[in-house]
Amino acid sequence: MSLVVFLASGCATTTRFTAADTAAVDRLLGFIGERLEVAPAVARIKWNTKAPIEDRLRERQIIDDVARRTNEYGLNSAIAASFLRGQIEASKTVQNALHAEWTASTQPAFTEVADLDRDLRPVLDRLTAMMLRALADTLPVIQQHGGRNLLDGRYKTTLARSPGGETAVRQAVAPLQRLSR
């Protein structure tokens, strides 16, 4: 009888994630992957223009804008800002790695690059909005007991081939891991 009680109590604490839960996590991870895919194009622009990879003023503007708009996503501003900082750091990791590679190989200026303001920033702005909506949907899932295991299993598969490799992916996912259980 005590074995039955023990087994039943263990089952009561085990979280079973639904297909919808997994889809919410995958959706957010997909947007993270899309954002990482934009980083090489940004790196090429900065390579050609010799612009610094880090632009603290622009980063602050983006994070402040997100913090002002978190109510429309149903998010805490600190959580949204931390999440977005992780995405920015991951993008810079991709860009720094590429610039190091290009410096070592004496890469000349690229002949065809996108326009940062016209082509890429609108994509990044759209992704930011989509990511924040997806973050609001994903938080209740990853904050459940076992959510960290679900997140870790899904990101290792979903983001395995992302630019910047494991380092950039870890930076992008780290804010989610800190929020998960």
What does this structure look like?
- With 181 residues, the protein is mainly α.
- The protein has a single domain (19-179), classed as Chorismate Mutase Domain, subunit A (Up-down Bundle), CATH 1.20.59.
- Helix content is 76%, strand content 0%.
- It is built from seven helices and no strands.
- It has helices spanning 2-12, 19-49, 56-69, 77-104, 116-142, 147-158, 165-179.
- Helix 2 (19-49) crosses helix 7.
- It is globular and about 55 Å long.
- Mean pLDDT is 92; it is low at 1-13.
Task: Present the secondary structure layout.
Layout: H1 2-12, H2 19-49, H3 56-69, H4 77-104, H5 116-142, H6 147-158, H7 165-179
Helix pairs in contact: 2-4, 2-5, 2-6, 2-7, 3-4, 4-7, 6-7
How many helix segments?
7
CATH architecture: Up-down Bundle
Looking at CATH, which topology would you report? Chorismate Mutase Domain, subunit A
CATH H level: which superfamily? Chorismate mutase
Estimate nothing, just give the exact number of structural domains.
1
Helix-strand category: mainly alpha
- How confident overall, as mean pLDDT? 92
Helix content: over 70%
How many beta strands in the DSSP annotation? 0
* β-sheet strand percentage: under 5%
Low-confidence stretches: 1-13
Order of helices and strands, N to C?
HHHHHHH
Summarize the model shown.
The chain is mostly helical and 181 residues long.
Which descriptors would you attach to this protein?
Chorismate Mutase Domain, subunit A; mainly alpha; 7 helices; 181 residues; 0% strand; disordered N terminus; globular
